[in-house]
């Protein structure tokens, strides 16, 4: 059995639009066990939504890593205990993607390194701001240059954060193309990723 924990994340910190994120002490815990076919069961946050079907970001990421490695999809019994609020701005989608990729990578004997996992996660998410701290922990600044993702991780002292969950759902879908994506996301990511002066 493979057991992993993935943290919640907060992104778009200060000037770090789509490139700066912080791992938080709120976790999803996921187990992967060999099985004939892939099944998925959730307890905690999002259980009602995710237990309706087996296709979700975690299982898509699990399959995507197999495809990236040119390996046939192996079945797995996947069980998740979610503490990260869904669609609440705390990186639940990045956590699901990182969990699926990491679980598949462990299942296949670690054919890919962490930067390879980050690249696939970024392709699925659209930007590395939540995926990088979900994968590496701490405070991470990332910039995408051509086909390469450059990251820098910072250790920070313990902080006490207050998290307020909105009553509305906040998803990439209802944000994409709206005011939260302006001005020019690609330009903002490149410009603000230099915020810490590396």
Question: Any overview of this molecule?
Answer:
- It is a single chain.
- The chain is α+β, with helices and mostly antiparallel strands and 198 residues long.
- The chain is 31% helix and 26% strand.
- It has a single domain, classed as Ribosomal Protein S5, domain 2.
- Strands 1, 2, 3, 4, 5 and 6 form a six-stranded mixed sheet that branches.
- The mean pLDDT is 85.
Q: How many individual β-strands?
A: 6
Q: What is the helix content?
A: 25-40%
Biggest pleated-sheet summary: 6 strands, mixed
What is the number of domains?
Answer: 1
Tell me what portion of residues adopts beta-strand conformation.
25-35%
Overall structural class, as computed from helix and strand content, comes to alpha+beta
What's the rounded overall pLDDT mean?
85
- Compressed to H and E, one letter per element, the order equals EEEHHEHHHEEHH
Q: Tell me, what is the CATH class?
A: Alpha Beta
Oligomer: single chain
The backbone outline, from C-alpha atoms, is globular
Distance between the termini: 39 Å
Which features would summarize this protein structure in a list?
Ribosomal Protein S5, domain 2, alpha+beta, 7 helices, 198 residues
Tell me the layout of helices and strands.
Blueprint: E1 2-11, E2 20-34, E3 39-44, H1 47-50, H2 57-68, E4 76-82, H3 92-107, H4 114-125, H5 131-136, E5 139-145, E6 148-154, H6 172-175, H7 185-192
Parallel strand pairs: 3-4
Antiparallel strand pairs: 1-2, 2-4, 2-5, 5-6
Short recap of the structure:
The protein is α+β, with helices and mostly antiparallel strands and 198 residues long. The protein has 7 helices and 6 strands, in the order βββααβαααββαα. It has one domain: Ribosomal Protein S5, domain 2, CATH 3.30.230.
């Amino acid at each position: 059995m493979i057991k992993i924990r993935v943290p919640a994340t907060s992104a778009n910190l200060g000037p770090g639009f789509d490139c700066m994120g912080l791992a938080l002490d709120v976790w999803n815990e996921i187990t992967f066990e060999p099985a004939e076919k892939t099944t998925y069961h959730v307890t905690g946050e999002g259980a009602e939504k995710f237990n309706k079907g087996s296709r979700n970001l975690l299982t898509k990421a699990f399959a995507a890593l197999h495809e990236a490695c040119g390996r046939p999809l192996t079945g797995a019994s996947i069980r998740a205990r979610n503490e990260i609020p869904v669609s609440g701005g705390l990186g639940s989608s990045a956590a699901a993607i990182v969990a699926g990729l990491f679980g598949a990578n462990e299942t296949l004997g670690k054919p890919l390194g962490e930067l390879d996992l980050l690249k696939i996660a970024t392709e699925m998410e659209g930007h590395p701001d939540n995926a990088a701290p979900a994968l590496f922990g701490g405070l991470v600044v990332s910039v995408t240059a051509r086909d390469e993702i450059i990251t820098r991780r910072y250790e920070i002292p313990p902080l006490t954060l207050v998290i307020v969950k909105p009553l509305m759902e906040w998803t990439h879908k209802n944000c994409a193309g709206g005011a939260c994506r302006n001005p020019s996301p690609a330009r903002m990511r490149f410009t603000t990723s230099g915020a810490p002066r590396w």
